Amino acid sequence: MVGITAVIVTRNRCAMLAKTLEAYLEAGVDQLVVVDNASEDDTPALLSARLVELGKRLVVLRQDQNLGAAGGFHLGMSFVRDNGDTDWLVVSDDDSYPAPDCLDRFRRAVTSQHAKANLIAARVTFPAGDICPMNRPMAFPQWRTLMANLFTGHRVTSLPEDPDETNQCQKVMAASFVGLFIRRDALLRTGVLPDPDYFLYWDDIGFCLDMGKHKEAILFHGGLNFVHDCGRHSSNLAGERFYLMVRNGYRVMAKMPLGYRLMALPYKSLCWLIQSMKRRAFHLFLKAIRDI
After folding, report:
1. Is the distance from CB of 251 to CB of 289 less than 8 angstroms?
2. Distance of CA 213 to the CA centre of its chain
3. pLDDT reported for residue 126
4. What is the pLDDT of residue 142?
5. Residue 164, C-beta contacts closer than 8 angstroms, at least 6 positions apart
6. For the chain, which terminal residue's Cβ has fewer other Cβ atoms within 10 angstroms, N or C?
7. What is the pLDDT at residue 120?
8. Can you give the pTM of this predicted structure?
């Protein structure tokens, strides 16, 4: 059977983490690797109790300081790469988890060679079943895609169609760290990991682009479903979060194909500039540009 290890990064969301762990176990994951980013709530107690119950099926990487999502995924993925014997990793936040049949569907897809790639992205929905916009895969750059997204209100680089099971497999440029399956051999062969310096934001896209430089294709599979149990509106980015969003965004866009940069760089720069003025954070916008 195809072995799957989940890598989950958490901080101070004990109740959500408990739900996510249970969903993975019910879906039939082989092992769970949880990076606890110095949680100060009941998370350590929860993980200690589950360790007693699950034994070697659960690995907890407790940190003394918050490494951010990027640092957590870097640590968790490198641990599985160097210490595990699993076939595949699947990564997600502590508020996202596979649908009950997702992992079985994935195993059938890779065993039957229906999904031929070393990185496979799942379809991500809210608990109610509608598509989660922030986790739509990133399409390859095309003016048609850009214009379609502008008119429909989607993110400029997202797949323009609502991904569903009728559109089962297609290549994409990048995908989020919610339901991204990664073959362990690909990590060993390329040496690519998320950049821990990103801390938050864009680490998943940067990782996918770095894998692409090693000729690793990313396949979106609409028949695999992950649930992202998060708010429907983006949080109000302010202070350090706004700075990281802008700085990391520029760093990642520098890695993208020229066609994408020509489309997205002016648009994103204008958006971030306007946001900085509204938030009275123009100094952070300038700092982000300086620190690229």
Report:
1. no
2. 18
3. 95
4. 61
5. 123, 222
6. N
7. 96
8. 0.91
Q: Each residue of 138-189: pLDDT tens digit?
A: 887 665 655 555 555 555 555 655 555 544 788 999 999 999 999 999 999 9
Q: What pLDDT does residue 234 have?
A: 61
* C-alpha triplet 139, 8, 43: angle, nearest 5°: 145
SS3 120: strand
Structural domains of the chain sorted by starting position, each given as residue range(s) with its CATH number in brackets: 4-228 (3.90.550.60), 240-290 (no CATH)
29-54: b (≥16 Cβ within 10 Å) or e: bbbbbbbbbebeeebeebbeebeeee
Q: Token pair for residue 186?
A: 């690909």
Return the residue matching tokens 């999904």: 115
Cβ contact 208:173 at 8 Å = yes
Q: Is 237 helix (H, G, I), strand (E, B) or coil?
A: coil
The percentage of the chain sitting over the pLDDT mark of 90, rounded to a whole number, equals: 75
The tally of CA atoms less than 13 A away on the side-chain side of residue 195 is: 17
Looking at 84-134, list the stretches that DSSP marks H as alpha helix, in order from N- to C-terminal side: 102-111
- Six token digits for residue 231: 């708010």
Residue written as token pair 């983490």 = 17
CA 19 to each of CA 15, 109, 149, 208: distance values in angstroms, whole numbers, following the listed order: 6, 26, 34, 28
Take residue 291 and report the two structure tokens written for it.
Answer: 């620190």
Half-sphere exposure of 172 (CA within 13 A, CB side): 31
Q: Which residues of the chain have pLDDT under 70?
A: 114-115, 141-167, 232-236
Give the pLDDT of residue 163.
52
